Every structure is written in C-alpha cells, then in structure tokens.
C-alpha cells in the first residue's frame, strides 16, 4: 500500500496544480486588452460581443425586471389594496383579469423581443467567436509576447493568405475535415445529453453537471485554436483527455454563471465570457515526429512520460 499511496498522492497533487493553473489561465483577462491593442479587428469583434450580449441582451433583462414588470404591477395590480375593512375584496374577478393580462403582456414581450434577440445573438455570436479566434490566433502566431501593434493591411493580407491556404487543400483533406467536424458535433451532442442526464442524479448530480459543463466549455474554447492550428480530431481528444485537470480548472470560473443566475441571464454572461476565454494562449500541444501528442509548458502529464516545452 505504500508505493500505491505515494503514487496516488503524487498524481493528486499534480492534478491539483494543473487545476489551479487552468483557473489562473482562465482568469488572465488582461491578455484580452493586450491583444486587442495589437489587433484592431480583434478589438472590434470583442466590443461587438460586449455590446450585443452585455448591453442589449442583459440590459433588456434588467429593463424588463426593474422597469416594465414593476410598472405593470402598479398599473394592473394583482391584489387588493390594504384596507381596514374586514370585508372580503369585492374586486377579485377584476384583479384576476389584471394578473392574466399582466402575464400575457410579459409573454408578448418575450415572444417578440427576447426570443428573437436570443436566436439572433446565438447566430451572430457564433460568427464573431470564429473571427475572434482567427484574429487572436494571428496576433499570437505573428507577434508572440512582443508589445507591437498590427497594421490593418498586414493583418488582412495574412488572414487572406490563411483562407487561400485552407481552400487550396485537396479533396481528400476536405472530406477528412468535414468528417471530423461532423464527428465533433455528434460527440459534443452526446456529451451535452450526458450533462443533462447527470444533472438529474440526486445529491451528486449538480457536482457532476458542473464538472462536465466545465469540460465542455473548455473544449469549445480551445477547439477554435486547434482548428486554426490544423490539429486533427484524434490528437485533440488525446490531448484533452491527457490534460483533463487543466481543462476542468479552465472551465470552472466561466460555468459558475449557469449556477448563479437564471437561464437567460446565465446565457448573457456566458456569451460575454466566451470570447474572453478565447484570448490567445500558448496552450497548443507539441507533436512528435511520429505524430504523437506531447505535453506543453514544461509540465509532465499523467499518460505521457515525456516532458517538453512548447512555444506557439
């Protein structure tokens, strides 16, 4: 039991350190400012996400709950005024109609404003997230840690050359890419179902739900970088499974929004945090000549005995 206990203690300490490193990396929001100053397009897309999801979407929720609903409750009261008379309220049927009318007006506000805004935000944010990942990846690849500012012309030329290079792949590579994307969508769909099912388990369901959502959130964030770096799906999954503790820590701070707020508010908060979590990092797996996945940043991970330092 001695060697086994030492091994468990060592691995547990290693997992804890990686989890802390993931949390710390997720909270390094100053990188967003640094790389936004270097890339004008990155700053524009990030600002648009804040404007749509923060100011418009969350602002609409605040106006609804703080202004519209209280005003409707004042105009269409749902209870009798406080009177000293012991007689029962003689306006119960009218007050019931007021409650029904007030609820109908709130639902109309949801149907004609919140739900379309939610769908619009979901579609537009997905497009912007991809642009943010591209511009951020370009800023990191071409400027590293140097404090320089990108010219719009150079950034545009580089992005156009990247798109041209992506389009010039052969048919086999294109089919492989399509197959990997479909597999990735199916994988994340089944994983989302698993997240939902585990949330129904008594006592431990919430904890499992929180951890699985953290992994899913982290995978979504880094999948943009891995797509741009040309990393195949099997290497992504191998890398993700080998470094599960880091990705759990990376997703934990962002997923807290789901458990602290209502569903609509949590979506708005997550939509703001998601582009921040896509800030450029050096978290890209090193590859052996044989194609195997190694670790990064000088750490030694559980399933891989090799230690290397990988700079993107």
From TrEMBL:
Which Gene Ontology terms of cellular component type are present? endoplasmic reticulum; membrane
InterPro entries reported for this sequence: CysZ/EI24 (IPR059112)
Q: Which UniProt keywords apply?
A: Membrane, Transmembrane, Transmembrane helix
Q: Where in the cell is it found?
A: Membrane
Q: Report how it sits in the membrane.
A: Multi-pass membrane protein
Query: An example of a Gene Ontology BP annotation on this entry?
Result: macroautophagy
Q: Does the keyword Repeat apply?
A: no
Q: Reply yes or no: does the keyword Transmembrane helix apply.
A: yes
Membrane-spanning segments: 50-72, 111-129, 182-205, 244-274
Stored PANTHER family: ETOPOSIDE-INDUCED PROTEIN 2.4 HOMOLOG (PTHR21389:SF0), P53 INDUCED PROTEIN (PTHR21389)
Q: What is this protein called?
A: Protein EI24 homolog isoform X2
Q: Which gene encodes it?
A: LOC104244769
């Amino acid at each position: 039991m001695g060697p086994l206990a030492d091994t468990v203690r060592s691995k547990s300490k290693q997992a804890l350190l990686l989890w802390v490193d993931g949390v710390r990396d997720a909270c390094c929001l100053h990188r967003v400012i640094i790389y936004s100053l270097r890339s004008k397009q990155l700053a524009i897309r990030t600002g648009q996400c804040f404007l749509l999801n923060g100011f418009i979407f969350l602002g609409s929720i605040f106006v609804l709950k703080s202004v519209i609903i209280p005003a409707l409750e004042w105009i269409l009261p749902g209870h009798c005024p406080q009177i000293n008379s012991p007689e029962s309220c003689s306006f119960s049927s009218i007050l019931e109609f007021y409650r029904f009318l007030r609820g109908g007006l709130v639902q109309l506000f949801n149907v004609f404003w919140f739900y379309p805004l939610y769908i619009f935000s979901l579609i537009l944010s997905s497009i912007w997230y991809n642009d943010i990942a591209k511009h951020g990846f370009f800023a990191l690849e071409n400027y590293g840690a140097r404090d320089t500012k990108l010219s719009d012309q150079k950034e545009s030329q580089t992005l156009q050359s990247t798109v041209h290079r992506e389009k010039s792949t052969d048919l086999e590579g294109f089919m492989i890419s399509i197959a990997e994307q479909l597999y990735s969508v199916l994988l994340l769909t089944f994983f989302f179902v698993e997240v939902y099912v585990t949330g129904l388990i008594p006592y431990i369901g919430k904890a499992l739900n929180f951890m699985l959502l953290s992994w899913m959130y982290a995978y979504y964030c880094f999948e943009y970088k891995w797509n741009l770096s040309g990393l195949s799906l099997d290497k992504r999954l191998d890398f993700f499974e080998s470094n599960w503790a880091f990705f759990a820590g990376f997703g934990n701070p962002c997923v807290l929004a789901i458990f602290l707020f209502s569903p609509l508010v949590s979506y708005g908060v997550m939509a703001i945090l998601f582009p921040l979590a896509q800030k450029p990092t050096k978290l890209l797996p090193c590859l052996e000549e044989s194609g195997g996945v190694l670790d990064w940043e000088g750490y030694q991970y559980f399933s891989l005995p090799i230690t290397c330092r990988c700079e993107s």
